[in-house]
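[step 3/7] fold_predict: job queued, chain A
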Amino acid sequence: MNSRRFAFIDIGTNTILCLIAEIKSDGSFAVMDDLAEITRLGQGVQRTGFIGPEGEERSRETLRRYLERCQSLKVQEVRAVGTSALRDAQNSAEVRGRFKEQLGLDVCVISGDEEAAYSFLAVQKGLPFNRRELLVIDVGGGSTELIRGNQSGVSQALSIDIGSVRLTEKFLHSDPVRKEEYEKMMVGIEIELASLPQQWLKDSSILTLVGIAGTFTTLSAVEKKLRCYAHGEVHGSQLTLREVRRQVALFESKTIAERKAIPGLEPKRADVILAGACLIERIMTLFRSERVIVSDHGVRYGLLHECLKQRN
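[step 4/7] structure written:
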């Protein structure tokens, strides 16, 4: 049976993910590796409008390691996309030019709508939702995508410019976080979420909420006290609103150093997890949803499924 090996790389504001898969001629695939590293490429973009040299260097070294892994697994094609930070930064073209020159890696910047479509495709293919009406929530570092759809595909999508890194850099400057900073952030979240379609809120009772990306998977891992991340424990799990609120209170009460000791919380995410958890809590409250299903398939899996479609 003929097969071909691909790598799908998602370069985000906070995290770079790399899915390596072997696609077979019958349309099936096998995951060979699924890599994740927090590089904080978008650090400072909210404040300066530019990707800084430290974030670029961390990201370049992670991408170099990923490409070495691709080489060792004899990957034949690499597809890399950039999201919020590379969309927003004024020096995005220069940064991508250096990635091309130094690593031989072409990075395509995708729009918020394209990001939403890839995220929805990943969820649709990754869990058995049958004929349910879905609201997929992709909380990133720099932006959050909300995508409504069903088995027919995406019906409506919205990208808003708030995420765990952007909110932290804009509002949370003290350690531990001061009450007035926290309150200002919550007001800021409410203002941004006011742009959500009113019809979605009216239809909240028929929507199944699905959360993807690192903040959701982290909250699930913290609830389960996972010392070592386990896809099988997180993918398809459920988070209740009560649990999300418990974790918001937990993160708010601790310094960043203290958060790093919480089982299930990746230490590099400790400074931005409070903002991400607050955003999730507000979205769930707005949609009057008592629970959300967690998927750890995101844009990289959407790229995989698009590839499968193209090859069939």
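[step 5/7] annotate
The chain has a mean pLDDT of 94.
The longest strand covers residues 15-24.
exit 0
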